[in-house]
UniProtKB/TrEMBL annotation:
Residues 101-116 have a biased composition (Basic and acidic residues). This is Replication initiation protein. Residues 91-100 have a biased composition (Acidic residues). Residues 76-128 are annotated as: Disordered.
Length: 502
């Protein structure tokens, strides 16, 4: 009988469909590896690591499961995390207040139309309080919270504007661009009002109307009245130069080697610092944008371990693998009204400034902060302007520093360790993680494995993909056999299955 790896029976498309069903990366990076010890060569598949289901469903699934583990690990802790690293910007929230540039010109007084924040004595803890029942049982509840943005106009049941010409696309676009900053301000205010260092795992997701909202797991229980007070008292003011009226529409400032100048007059555009100085000197200056959360706030108490806790973790990470623009996508195809809604929002986002360094400031006659050559209005490098992201170009997962005491990479390593220990306990040798590593050397100290790029044809792609499927199947059989052979040290819930070894 001919092997599927040897004959031309299996096409690239067939191998791809099989890989999808077996949760194997369908768009791997193929690299040629030369083993200098055996003088052999082979093509190796490296997972693409995409977090988007539309790009690679298997890799997106693994990324989501890893986030589920991270969420579960920190939600119902009973002890304080011992290891609290300073995380990178793309992994965890930095809990920063307004930028120093905003402080330079903004008023330090609270807005008169915003209620005062409740303040209580602060405790140096991150875990929730323990409550006791009449019969002596103890439990430590936590919470699941959802915050939404206000209305920008009436929408239909399908989530599209009922009256598009009168729908406030500009405000929705600005709120989306700065949503993460408003969320940061909320956590700062909540900690002051709750009286302890509230820790959270949050996911920023779009509603069907393409408006961002936040789902968050909170460690510990906070009175619902307090949360509602904090939501009502939280706002964000944007103290920026005005960008209501564009100065350059049909022409663009040019770079003269040192600054951006008017192409016709040669006049140098004011720098970002000069624009802020003018704003600070204006006694009538007002923030160009003020944003708040909407009135709808959903809160639920969660006790773990429980099915409610597992269900909440699954729901919290449900849309992490989807792009913002895919909110309206269904099996029947895109809805024309929804596509038109996304197009109009994208058109508004194209020329709005997303940050102090946004190239769109040139459209309003101001040089961006730290300006350099090559900037063009409407072509900012930030993902927030893309139609795929529709304003949410930053982090989709917001995790506080002391949530689990581990980085995401450490959680991934923990998952691999569980599998390896299970295999070793059953007398099986786990696949060696360094088996093809560039750090492996020969007796003379030179690298044993030499990696080079390759452009395989469809037949090679199918062969390598099938080999990856067979390898995964073999590892899975070994792991299941190890679990059946004896007890497994793995306390994670069913929401977070362990990864394959290797």
């Amino acid at each position: 009988m001919m092997s599927v790896l040897d004959g031309p029976v299996i096409t690239a498309d067939m191998a791809r469909e099989l890989a999808l069903s077996q949760k194997v990366c369908i768009r791997p990076l193929l690299r040629r590896v030369h083993d200098r010890h055996d003088d052999t060569e082979d093509v190796v598949a490296l997972p693409c690591g995409s977090t988007r289901e539309a790009v690679c469903p298997p890799c997106a699934y693994k990324a989501r499961v890893l986030r589920m583990q991270q969420c579960t690990a920190g939600w119902h802790r009973t002890d304080e995390p011992e290891h609290c690293p300073a995380p990178p910007r793309d992994d965890q929230d930095e809990d920063q207040a307004d930028d120093d540039l905003d402080r330079r010109v903004r008023s330090t007084r609270r807005r008169q139309d915003a209620p005062d924040l409740p303040r209580v004595p602060q405790e140096n803890r991150t875990v929730g309080r323990v409550f006791a029942t009449a019969d002596g049982r103890e439990y430590r509840p936590s919470m699941f919270l959802t915050l939404t943005m206000p209305s920008y106009g009436a929408v239909t049941s399908a989530g599209v504007p009922a009256d598009p010409p009168n729908y406030n696309y500009r405000r929705q676009a600005l709120d989306a661009l700065h949503f993460a900053r408003l969320v940061d301000r909320f956590w700062q205010n909540l900690r002051r009002a709750a009286g302890y260092k509230v820790q959270y795992f949050g996911a920023v997701e779009p509603q069907r109307r393409l408006v961002p909202h936040l789902h968050a797991a909170l460690r510990g229980a906070i009175p619902r009245a307090t949360i509602r007070e904090v939501v009502a008292a939280t706002y964000l003011q944007l103290w920026w130069p005005s960008f209501d009226r564009p100065v350059y529409v049909h022409r663009t400032p040019v770079w003269d080697g040192e600054s951006y100048v008017d192409a016709d007059t040669g006049e140098v555009l004011p720098t970002w610092d000069q624009a802020l100085d003018r704003l600070a000197a204006d006694p009538e200056a007002k923030p160009v944008h003020v944003m708040r959360f909407g009135r709808q706030v959903d809160m639920a108490g969660i006790i773990a371990p429980s099915e409610d806790a597992d269900r909440a973790v699954r729901y919290l990470t449900k849309y992490l693998t989807k792009a913002v623009a895919d909110t309206h996508t269904s099996e029947g195809g895109p809805d024309p009204a929804a596509e038109a809604h996304a197009d109009r929002l994208h058109a508004e986002l194209r020329f709005l400034p997303c940050s102090e360094r946004c190239a769109n400031w040139l459209r309003y006659g101001i040089q961006p902060d730290a300006a350099g050559p090559g900037l063009q209005p409407g072509r900012c490098a930030s993902k927030a302007h893309d139609r795929e992201h529709l304003g949410l170009g930053g982090r989709r997962v917001l995790v506080s520093r002391q949530w689990s005491g581990k980085r995401l990479a450490e959680h991934k390593a923990d998952r691999a360790t569980v599998v390896r220990e299970a295999l070793l306990a059953a007398g099986l040798v786990a696949p060696e993680t360094e088996r093809l590593a560039a750090a492996v050397t020969l007796s003379d100290g030179s690298p044993r494995f030499v990696w080079t790029d390759t452009r395989p044809d469809a037949r090679t792609y199918a062969r390598v993909l099938l080999a990856s499927i067979a390898e995964r199947h073999r590892w899975r059989e070994q792991y299941e056999a190890a679990k059946a052979a004896g007890p497994l040290v793995d306390n994670r819930p069913a929401t977070a299955p362990p990864t394959d070894p290797g």
